[in-house]
Structures are given as structure tokens and as C-alpha cells.
């Protein structure tokens, strides 16, 4: 039965799992574990933390498998689930004061490579994301910090104000100036018409 299941598509495995077949779930984890870890490790360098998050992804996948409708590939659905779990984990790490375990600059909006993209498109996106990180690092700390918290950690103005001990109005002003400065530096380094 195990060998038969291994030959089946992801969509058929989903059906078997929903019918209570535990072997099918084991095959699903084995088949996609490397993919999930790769997605996570693009943002988090700590291998042990990445393993923990991957385990959480598969637990959540099992619990929410009934929401997979088959409108897209299973890997696309799993990719979205991984992205959401990673965002949740980063928020928990931040609240626990363990941000140092992550890369200081995350890919904008935590975008991983899209599995449906061509290799050339993936390379271009990686290069673009690296340029974003370089441009961010070139900003003064007070601007870089609000940009990182707002755009990459998805914090609200109120949360940023509380974390940085400043009025919300100051956060708004700094974020506006940060975006303006970022755009100017980006245009100088990469070229006009990109943003």
C-alpha cells in the first residue's frame, strides 16, 4: 500500500489523508519537507528554528487540509501556509526577545520564490530582494527601523509607537520620510521607473 501511495499525485494523497490514511500523511511530509525548509531558510538562518517551524507547518497543513480545494497546485497552497506560519513565528520570536536568531533584513513582505516561476525570474527576484536589503541598510537607523517594523514585520503604527516609545504621529512622519529616502536611494542605485 505504501509503495502504491508513493506513486500518487499530491491531490490523491490529500484525499487519502482526509479519509484517515496516516501513511499518506507520512508520504506527504517526506515529499515536501525539503521544499518547506528551503522556503523557511531563505528568511531564517537558524536551522533548528527552521526545523521547528517546518514541523508546525505540517501540523497546520494536516489540520487545515480540508481547506485545500484543488484550484491551484498543492505546493502553492503549502507555500502560502508556510509563509503565514513563518510570519507568525517571527512575531512570536520578536515578542520573546529572540530576534537575533533571524536575519536582520527579511525579504520584502517575506516573499519567497514562487514555485511556478521560471529559474530566470527567480534569479531576478533574488537579486532585486538583495538590492532592497542593501538599500535598507544604507538608511539611517531611525528610518530603517520603522521601515523594517512596518513593511517586513507587519507591525501597526500603534505597535511601532509602543515598541520605540514615541508618539504615533512621529512614527507616521518617520515612515513617510523613510519611504521617500528609500525611493531616492533605490532610484540612484537601480534606476528610475523601478518603484
From TrEMBL:
Domain RNA polymerase sigma factor 70 region 4 type: 130-179
InterPro entries on file: RNA_pol_sigma-70-like, RNA_pol_sigma-70_dom, RNA_pol_sigma70_r2, RNA_pol_sigma70_r4_t2, RNA_pol_sigma_r2, RNA_pol_sigma_r3/r4-like, WH-like_DNA-bd_sf
Annotated protein name in UniProt: Sigma-70 family RNA polymerase sigma factor
Domain named RNA polymerase sigma-70 region: residues: 28-94
Keyword match Transcription: yes
Keywords: Sigma factor, Transcription, Transcription regulation
Family affiliation: Belongs to the sigma-70 factor family. ECF subfamily.
Upper classification of the organism: Bacteria, Bacillati, Bacillota, Bacilli, Bacillales
A UniProt-annotated Pfam family: Sigma70_r2
Keyword Transcription recorded: yes
